[in-house]
Fold this sequence. Notes:
Pfam family, one: Rrf2
CATH architecture: Orthogonal Bundle
CATH topology: Arc Repressor Mutant, subunit A
Protein name: Rrf2 family transcriptional regulator
Radius of gyration: 17 Å
Shape: elongated
Helix content: 55-70%
Amino acid sequence: MFSKACEYGIKASTYIALQSLEGQRVSLKEIAGEIDSPIAFTAKILHQLAKNDILVSVKGPYGGFYIPKEKIDVIKLAAIVYAIDGDSVYTGCALGFNECNASKPCLLHDKFVGIRDELREMLQNTSLYELTAGLETSLTYLKR
């Protein structure tokens, strides 16, 4: 459903948020290692997230990535998904056809419309803090 870049973006954002709640900045290398992503690919993803005001990048010897604590509960997963994948997750065809809409539907179109609507609602109503709080109790996808 999400691109690999988007999956890594969500994982990176939750890891950065977790560290930010502890007052820590994290390096690109640390983030890539924790989410098991190539460093160059992770750098591109983090750049997109910073460009879209999801996270902050600080250069220099004491630099790294962080998310201001007050924003962690405000940032919704929808913002992360949009920063990486745009709105294609809400508009794309379930079967990957280039042209699929109400007037020219694929075989799954009518069923998939409802799923997309539920996905949109879930992403718009789930905060980064909710994922971070879950990670604090069960480090599901981080290497720790």
